[in-house]
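To illustrate the input format used throughout this study, we show a single complete record. The first block contains the structure-token representation of the backbone; no residue identities are included at this stage. The design step must infer an amino acid for every position from geometry alone.
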């Protein structure tokens, strides 16, 4: 089992920045990729960004490219999402997720952290 705890959400004005953090614990040795997803009210959960745990290769949704930066701290088993130039449409609950090496999809999820962007 892998446990994930997100932090860093909150209220920010449009154009502002937030940094989300996700700390993983438990059986993290099998982590292949860590990612961030979000879900706004009435919408499906969507991919935001991910990082390959071993290589550090990053992946971004088109909506995140150029504004969001994902990074990892292997020693702390933590993944960060720096979000700049936030827009009202970025408001959502942001979820951290882990995909282990033996899985074809993300198989561990955090509880989520709320991001609210005021216009």
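Output of the design step:
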């Amino acid at each position: 089992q892998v446990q994930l705890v997100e932090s860093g959400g909150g209220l920010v004005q449009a154009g502002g920045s937030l940094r989300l953090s996700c700390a993983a614990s438990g059986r993290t040795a099998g982590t292949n990729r860590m990612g961030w997803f979000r879900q706004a009210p009435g919408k499906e959960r969507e991919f935001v960004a991910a990082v390959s745990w071993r290589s550090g290769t990053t992946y971004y949704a088109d909506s995140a490219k150029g504004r969001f930066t994902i990074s990892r701290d292997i020693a702390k088993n933590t993944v960060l999402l720096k979000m700049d130039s936030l827009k009202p449409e970025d408001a959502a609950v942001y979820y951290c997720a882990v995909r282990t090496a033996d899985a074809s999809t993300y198989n561990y999820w955090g509880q989520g952290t709320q991001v609210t962007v005021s216009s």
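Structural context for interpreting the output: The mean pLDDT is 97. The two ends are 40 Å apart (CA to CA).
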